[in-house]
Design a protein that fits this description.
Helix 3 packs across helix 4. Helices cover about 35% and strands about 20% of the residues. The chain is built from seven helices and eleven strands. The radius of gyration is 19 Å and the shape is globular. Keywords: Membrane, Transmembrane, Transmembrane helix.
């Protein structure tokens, strides 16, 4: 075969792979929703740079939870979790990443890390490290670990953690499995290395998005693991056991 034809075929394949990879990372990783759902509580709305978030202030507490949500919806879709954390005696701060809810911008892996770091820097102006708890949900778990390690925070809760995008693709029966090595984003193991704080892992044995057995690859980094039931989006969270873990860790 003519060398020029071979080069053109290879070039075309590389271009197609690049386009597919770019499209998947832009439009499949994230499923943001701009419109808020109606809420039960009255939140203090804040804007920090381009980031919009909510604060549920607990006047009787000097502790705060920074909530890093998952890949879909916006901050209004997790209100039941904020209320439970508030009942535990925490002020709850939640925020939307770039491109989610009322926060401007375009989401990307690095952008999520930068958004969370910016919010945590703001929190640290008011709260000491020992009084800050990071709660990560799904894709928000790599984000939570990233900022916890970067700012040397001592306590993290990981709910249904995404181990990596590659792991999710490998679990699906689709053509992307052939090039899953290109999707090495949100690799939580990379950020668990070197983290010295305590981690509570919550994961459902029924999870249809992130298989339960995938978490065994990170178990040696986990302080305590509590199995759950329910789907990835609607797990049955054992809030009483979370409270016990927090009490034991303080």
């Amino acid at each position: 075969m003519n060398i020029d034809i071979v080069c053109k075929i290879i070039f075309t394949i590389l271009v197609v792979i690049f386009i597919v990879t770019t499209v998947v990372k832009r439009f499949c990783y994230f499923k943001p929703i701009e419109k808020y759902k109606e809420t039960q509580e009255d939140y203090t709305i804040f804007k920090h740079n381009h980031i919009v978030g909510w604060l549920l202030k607990n006047k009787d507490s000097d502790k705060i939870v920074m909530f890093c949500h998952g890949y879909n919806g916006n901050i209004s879709h997790r209100e039941n979790k904020y209320i439970e954390l508030f009942k535990m005696g925490y002020t709850v701060l939640t925020f939307d990443y770039s491109g989610f809810g009322k926060t401007s911008g375009i989401p990307s892996e690095q952008r999520l890390y930068e958004d969370a770091s910016s919010i945590l820097s703001m929190i640290k102006k008011t709260y000491e490290n020992k009084n800050i708890l990071i709660y990560g949900e799904s894709m928000g778990c790599p984000v939570a670990i990233y900022v916890a390690r970067r700012f040397n925070l001592g306590l993290v809760i990981l709910e249904s953690p995404l181990i990596s995008i590659k792991g999710v693709i490998d679990n699906k029966h689709c053509l992307l499995k052939l090039v899953s090595f290109l999707f090495n984003d949100f690799d939580i193991k990379k950020y668990l290395l070197g983290y010295k704080g305590k981690i509570l892992l919550l994961h459902s044995t029924d999870d249809e998005v992130v298989p339960y057995d995938s978490i065994f690859t990170i178990n040696n980094h986990i302080t305590k693991h509590i199995p759950m039931t329910g789907s990835h989006k609607f797990p049955n969270i054992p809030w009483d056991k979370i409270q016990e873990f927090i009490n034991e860790s303080n």
